[in-house]
Amino acid sequence: MVTKQLWDQMFPERWGVGEEWKKEYQSLEIYYPQMMVDYYSYDNFKNAILRMSGLRCSLFANEAGATEQDRSREVAAFLATISYRTAKNGRALYYREEIFHERSTAGNVELYRNPKYKNYALGNKPTCFPQGSPKAGRVRFTTQSYHGRGPMQLTGDDNYGAFSEVVFQTPDTLLCDPNMLLVDGELAFMSAIWYWLRSVRPYGSAHQAMYKDLYNHETWGFGHTIVILSGGTARGGVEGGPTEVDRAVTEQIAWYRKYAEALGVTVGVNGEQLDTKGMFELITLLSTVHSLRGNITKFQKLSSFVMKNESHEDRNATDR
């Protein structure tokens, strides 16, 4: 589906490899020679898929009954997403972490620590600059930061903890050392695949959205992945429109078309929606349905409880 040759053609300016990347980073104060590795290598991508398959996450580009076109379309959508999140001026996979955090020297940044999602024990040790860097051993952040890292820019303690549970069977591994995603490019790609496959109510997963037969909505496809992966913030975007959301959606669609062409697949046909127009109404409807289902379930449990109590009281009255 994607060969090493095609990978190198699609991502010539990726982290640690591109000539423009080298020119920029070697001139930065934060540069150190050990950072110049092929972080987004083809082998890291390929091995990440294999490792995730061994962790019962084997559906990525491997949906049962899907055609080769369907699977290639999903790969194109995935590559478009990670390109959009890591690009600089059209150069995909250029960055490996949020640039503001990467280049911060004062440590006064958002750490994305919010333990309300799960009862995680967050890492509280200071984060130091890595060995080999000009500031090696000095404190970078006063505590662990869960900012965006890797091809999908995994963000937030809830996502770091949940992904860590899948790979390491405990949330503590990545919560205590989130920089593992910077050291290990293969692990970083695994986090991106996990995020792509994870299901979020009421949307479903980005993986499901790319298959018409899996996505039980009037439309399906790339536009839905944009909404799902943005947590709903990118809904209502129109390709070529004037708003900030429009521009973000338009850029992602451009990446998608590029990779679809490289992989030889058609997009935007057979009901596939590329932009996110009208998805505010769809998501509102899905949220309402999800809420109603929850209320119905609660009502059914309450009704069952009441009926059991009434039956018990009737038996007691008969006995008396």
From TrEMBL:
Q: Ranges for the Glycoside hydrolase family 19 catalytic domain?
A: 187-197
- Please list the GO terms describing molecular function: chitinase activity
Q: Which residues cross the membrane?
A: none
Q: What UniProt keywords are attached to this protein's entry?
A: Disulfide bond, Plant defense
What is this protein's name?
A: Glycoside hydrolase family 19 catalytic domain-containing protein
Q: Indicate whether Disulfide bond appears among the record's keywords.
A: yes
* SUPFAM superfamilies, A to Z: Lysozyme-like
What is the organism field in this record?
A: Calicophoron daubneyi (Rumen fluke)
Superkingdom, taxonomy of origin: Eukaryota
Give the InterPro entries listed for this entry.
Answer: Glyco_hydro_19_cat (IPR000726), Lysozyme-like_dom_sf (IPR023346)
Biological process GO annotation list?
Answer: cell wall macromolecule catabolic process; chitin catabolic process; defense response
User: By its UniProt entry, which CDD domains does this protein fall under?
Assistant: chitinase_GH19 (cd00325)
